[in-house]
Design a protein that fits this description.
DUF3267, 184 residues, transmembrane, transmembrane helix, alpha+beta
Length: 184
C-alpha cells in the first residue's frame, strides 16, 4: 500500500482555525435549512415546550456531543469488531478514534456521516412529536450540524480519494492509502 494523504487534524492549528471558520458559515446555512424544515413540519403546540430555556438547550447539545461520538464509536466497531475505540477531547474537539484500523472509503464515509444523519433525523422526529419547539429544534439542529464540520471534512477528503482507497484511522486524524497497483 502507498500512503497518498496524511491528515493530522488534532495538531494542525491552521486546519482547526479553518474548520471553525467554516463551522460559522455552516451554522448560518443549517439555521435556514432547519428553520425551513421546522416550518414544513409545523407541529402543534405542546404544553410545556415553551418553558425550555437556554440551559436545557445547552444540556441537550452536551448530550448530543456524547451521542455523536458514540455513534462514530459504534460504527467503528460494526466495521471492525476487533479494533479498539477510544474517545477524547483536545483543542476544542470531541472525537472518537479507532487507531490503526483500516476501512474502505465507503465504510469510512458511513462512520463519518452517520452521526449527522442519525441525530438530525432524530431531532426532526422529536420536533414532529412536539417535544421541542421549532425555535429550539432549529437552534439545536443547526449547532449540532455545524459541529459536524470535521466529519464533513473527512467526507470531502475521502470523496476525492481514488477508487479502492483505504482509510486508516489514527489517534490524530486519518491516513489514506491506495494499493501499489492504483499508484502506478
Amino acid at each position: 500500500m502507498k500512503l497518498i494523504k496524511e491528515v493530522d487534524i488534532i495538531n494542525d492549528k491552521k486546519a482547526i482555525v479553518w474548520l471553525n471558520v467554516v463551522a460559522i458559515f455552516l451554522v448560518v446555512l443549517f439555521w435556514f435549512l432547519f428553520k425551513a424544515a421546522a416550518l414544513l413540519i409545523n407541529p402543534p403546540a405542546v404544553h410545556g415546550t415553551s418553558g425550555y430555556g437556554l440551559a436545557v438547550s445547552l444540556i441537550i447539545l452536551f448530550v448530543l456531543v456524547i451521542v455523536h461520538e458514540g455513534i462514530h464509536g459504534l460504527f467503528f466497531k460494526v466495521f471492525n469488531p476487533k479494533g479498539t475505540v477510544s474517545f477524547g477531547f483536545k483543542n476544542g474537539m470531541a472525537y472518537a478514534t479507532s487507531p490503526g484500523s483500516f476501512y474502505p472509503k465507503a465504510k469510512f464515509a458511513i462512520i463519518a456521516g452517520a452521526p449527522f444523519i442519525i441525530i438530525s433525523s432524530g431531532l426532526l422526529i422529536v420536533l414532529a412529536a412536539g417535544i421541542l419547539s421549532p425555535p429550539q429544534f432549529t437552534a439545536i439542529a443547526a449547532v449540532h450540524a455545524s459541529g459536524c464540520v470535521g466529519d464533513f471534512y473527512w467526507l470531502l477528503l475521502i470523496s476525492k480519494s481514488p477508487k479502492g482507497a483505504l482509510v486508516e484511522d489514527t489517534d490524530k486524524g486519518i491516513n489514506i492509502y491506495v494499493s501499489d497497483v492504483h499508484s502506478l
